[in-house]
Write a structure and sequence with these properties.
The strands form two sheets. A five-stranded parallel β-sheet has the order 2-3-4-1-5, sandwiched between helices. It has a three-stranded antiparallel β-sheet with strand order 6-8-7. It has helices at about 25-35, 55-70, 85-100, 105-120, 150-165, 185-200, 215-220, 225-230, 240-250, 260-270, 275-285, 295-315, 320-335, 355-360, 370-375, 385-395, 410-420; strands at about 45-50, 70-75, 170-175, 205-210, 230-235, 370, 395-400, 405. A hairpin with a 5-residue loop joins β7 and β8 (about 405). It folds into three domains: about 25-235, Rossmann fold, CATH 3.40.50; about 235-315, Orthogonal Bundle (Helicase, Ruva Protein, domain 3); about 320-420, Winged helix-like DNA-binding domain superfamily/Winged helix DNA-binding domain (Arc Repressor Mutant, subunit A, Orthogonal Bundle). The chain is about 50% helix and about 10% strand. By secondary structure, the protein is an alpha/beta fold. It contains 17 helices and eight strands. About 45% of the residues are buried. α4 packs antiparallel against α5 and α5 runs parallel beside α6 (about 185-200). It comes from Intrasporangium calvum (strain ATCC 23552 / DSM 43043 / JCM 3097 / NBRC 12989 / NCIMB 10167 / NRRL B-3866 / 7 KIP). This is Cytochrome c domain-containing protein. Keywords: Heme, Iron, Metal-binding. Pfam families: AAA_16.
Amino acid sequence: MDPITNPYAPGAGQRPPELAGRDEQLRTFDVVLERIARGRSERSIVLTGLRGVGKTVLLNALRSSAVRADWGTGKLEARPDQRLRRPLAAAAHQAVRELGHPRGDEVDQVLGIIKSFALRDAASGSKLRDKWQPGIDVPAVPGRADSGDIEIDLVELFTDIGGLAADLGKGVAFFVDEMQDLGPEDVSAVCAACHEISQSGLPVIVVGAGLPHLPAVLSASKSYSERLFRYQRIDRLPRDAADQALVGPAAEEGCAFTDEALEAMYSVTAGYPYFIQAYGKVVWDVSPSSPISAQDIRVAAPEAESELAVGFFGSRFERATPAEREYLRAMADAALVRGPGDQATTEGHGDAGASPAAYGIVDELDAVATSAVADLLGRKPQSLSPARDALIKKGLIYSGERGQIAFTVPHFGRYLRTQA
């Protein structure tokens, strides 16, 4: 097959040629946009899921829908080492410019408030030359969104931006990726601002995306967050959607898959969108001709797994310290589903460390008890808390409920066992 015409696109946040299996989320969002534009009440949206399920891709697709609806939009990616003011100010600046309000004086007033909000990021008493200067060519407006209390300031900022959008019968949407990495004060501020905006009926929403424990992060900040957001779990694709993600782009290039090849692809990818693109790209390059067969999948699988081991899994594993890697490996062992005789069970046959292309996917638990990890390591759970907490901060594992932990990356346990 011609590698130049290869349609598959494995990349972080890179939109695949066919966004299969997400029609429901796209339709729901279109309804939300229209309802808000008509002055109807709607909640902000939170997308959650593991790494590699396409949260960022879907977030970008939702933003495109908002742009087509003539909304103002801004996007930011939360980071654990960065406060909210600077990236949100940049996103707000872009959103206001996209609105295209005809009255320049009113736009300048709101831009000046955004500038005041951003400048308040500097420490108290900082000299002007030491302050970060946003690229907004209007004077700052003092006394609005610059109190220093992020919760008060964000409410005021959203209120003023929402009023500007309401004048035009439009809305503003802020898209926040990696939302679980916001600091506690910033999470509280976002919840408070969304709450205030929903009560006032202004056309501003937040669309966040993050790991599965994001709802717990929001709930810990504000108890009413459970009613404040519309939560949507983004998971792996069902078989028909996974097939379409492969077949659709291939058909555009005059290529096809046999039924056996599609079955083999679902076996090795388990329907995870990133894996579908990663395997699809390698399979295309190694296949001699159309239709792509199950034998082509078997030939391509080792190369695809090798690339995933380096880029998708290995890059994350390298971020862990030796103690943290020991904890991860114990998690991988504890996550195996045990069958009769205390043997790990698989969907195919063979040992748990064998290639998934040859033996199928190891059956794993979604989460394991921290006590089970401690038992495997022969340690007390309290002594492993530093390693566990560090891994959570690095985004390698998460805790959906007390005493339970899970990998943020699908098939990470399988990777660890094969590397062992």
